[in-house]
Every structure is written in structure tokens, then in C-alpha cells.
Amino acid sequence: MIYQTIKQAKRIVVKVGTSTLAYGTGGLNLRRIERLAEVISDIKNSGREVILVSSGAIGVGAGVLGMMNRPSDTKDRQAAAAVGQCELMNYYGQLFHKYGHNVAQILLTKDTIDVAKSKENARNTFQTLLDYGVLPIVNANDTVSTEETDCGDNDTLSAIVATLVEADILIMLSDIDGLFDSDPRKNEHAKMIRIVKDIDENILQTASGAGTKNGTGGMITKLSAAKIATSAGIHTCINNGKHPEILYDILDGKETGTLFVAN
Q1: 0.85 exceeded by the pTM?
Q2: Going by fewer Cβ within 10 Å, which terminus of the chain is more open, N or C?
Q3: What confidence tens digit (pLDDT) does each residue in 71-81 have?
Q4: Whether pLDDT at 215 is above 50
Q5: Rg for the chain, CA atoms, rounded
């Protein structure tokens, strides 16, 4: 029954992490991004609305600037984000245009969401772009944000966006297949948890930290995001983004990854 509901999802938020978009070097995984653009374009062609929340700007920018690791200093992080955001949007624009779709960039900070007037303006912008058939591509505004003004990690941002636009489903693509009862990188006998109806303390205890050196989020941030989204009535999925066509399986109602059921 739950999977039948997902098949009917009209408005979809897809979040892709740095580990999906880039190699460990920080360079873009061009083949994977092109496949992602093709799949999302096809989904849009079917009549569904898609909002893409994309990480990767800082990691890509760090690679362009020759930084050996993801910068921790605020000014270096902001500089890397400024460079990387141009790289990402330029490539996204080319790819989606190839498949007949226009894109728009939306950069958010915590202030945008916390202030009622700007929050309403953001909601109206999303709706207008969707009305025109444009694909909104969202990221935190890392070029100006600080610890006090950022939205946290992009997992949390994706849940905030999903709530803001009243999405039917939030799909988080990561470097892991879903939620396991223990860390599958350390325990080869770890078992996947297919359906979660309540994100309680037992579920939270299964979480681990960031999976790759260029990413900021880990399973704990995804569980926090899932809690925000499901509390707002939005089904949430965690799946591996290695093969972007997994989006077809999710929206076809197939049992894949981990599904967090909306409250």
C-alpha cells in the first residue's frame, strides 16, 4: 500500500551528495552526472515535478583550486563554494538543456527559512519555476553563509525544501544502499532495514558518520532529515546514487533502499 502511494507521487525532491557527483579527487564524475540528468529529465517528461538539491560545490571548487582536502577554514570554504558552484551549474545547465529542460539556481541560507516574508518569497519562487516547467537546483549559499546563517548539511536542507514545497516524496541519493542495522563498511553481515515507521532511539543508534572525505553528511544527518520530512507528511527514501536509474525503481513502487514512512 505504501509503495502504491509512492507510485502516485507528483512532486519529488531529489538530493544528491558529493560522493554521488564527484570522485575522491574533487573532480566531477561526468558519466554519473550525465546519467542523473537524463533520468531526471525523463521523469519530468512523464509529468512529474522535480526539485534537485545538489551538494558538491565546495568539493568541486576545492579540486579546481588545487586544495588537497575539503577546506575547514571559512574563507577557503566560501572561495571553494564560489568556484565550484559555477562549475556545477554550468555543467547542469548544459546537460539538462541537451534533454530539453531549463534549470534555475536557488541558493538558500537559514535566514531565508527563518524569516516569514523571505520564506514565503522562496515558496512562491519555487512554485513559479515549477509552473514554467523549470528544474530548480538548490544548494546552501556557502559563499556567504557562516555557522550562524547556514542551513546545516544538505541532507537537512533537502528536508527543509521538501517541506517548503509540500513535496510528496524526498529521495536522498548517497554512497550507501540504505539504512543497515550496523555499519556495512565494518560488518559484512549487516542487514538492511527496508521500512522505518518510527525514527526512534533504536534507529538513531544505527547511524554512523560521513562516508567520504569530501562529504559532510552521514547516516545521522539523513535520519535527522528523514525525521523532519516524515513529520511533515512526506515519505523519505535513502538509496545509493551510484546508478541514478534507481530513481525509476523508487517511483515505480519497487522495494529498494530504505523507506521512511510519512507520519
Answers
A1: yes
A2: N
A3: 888 888 889 88
A4: no
A5: 17
